[in-house]
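User: Show me sequence and structure for the first protein, then do the same for the second.

Assistant: Starting with the first protein.
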Amino acid sequence: MNKHYPNNVSNLFSDSDNMNKQSKHSGGGGGMEERIARLESDVEYIKRDISEIKTDLKDFKKSTDDSFKRIDDQFKGVAAEFKGVTAEFKGVTAEFKSVRAEMASEFKNVRAEIAEVRVSIASQTNKLMAFMLAVGGLIVAAIKYL
């Protein structure tokens, strides 16, 4: 049998010698009643601490729930704003495409007009050259005639 734990419980506390031997190995001093009282006291402190921890956790949960709700609400607001901006952007994009198509058409018209003006200038230049040649011929004929 283990020398620290006698088989007969009644011998455990029969004299102070056994109490001193037991207290050296149990980690605490005093009699069983003192040890039980200390354990009961410790259990009460543990219960109190657990109760405080539960309260703190409930407060923390409420606080984080509130924070996450605010963040979620803000996110929803940002998402709604983003949808609005996206819709505006789509409208601007459509308008830009329309303006671009209109500008392409107008540039095509301007190029056609420039081509017409070039043809007209070339034609007028040819007519002017012909006129000048005719006038030059008349001048030469008039000089010869005089």
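Switching to the second protein now.
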Amino acid sequence: MNVSGLGSTTSITDNLQKAQVRLTSGINPLDSSSSQVTQSDTVSISDEGKNKLSTELGATMHKNATSAETQQSEQADTRTENEKMIDKLKEEIKELQEQRRDLVGNNSPQTQDQLKMIDNKIMMLNTQLMSLLKAQEEADTPSSL
């Protein structure tokens, strides 16, 4: 009988690894005095079965972890669109400042043009950031009627 399902004619015990399983019953037999009954069975799982089990288990665990992360991120991000835009602008400004720092010291005309362009972008982003911060402050301040 071919248990592994591989269609091979080799002995099953050659393809299988053995595991020891002990079953204990918590029910005391009527004719013995407080002793537990222990039964021992040997269960074998083929390498292919182990691989399939680990693949299926891994896929399920990954799916569960991914859905949990998605739920956490959805619950954690309760910021307003205004706050998200403020954070995005701050990040863009930081990146431009890093680019500017890298270019400082190079006196070539091309680099000077890039520095001017970066400075203009930073000024525009700062203006947008200031207007968003002002709008947020106005939204957070309760109006007194």
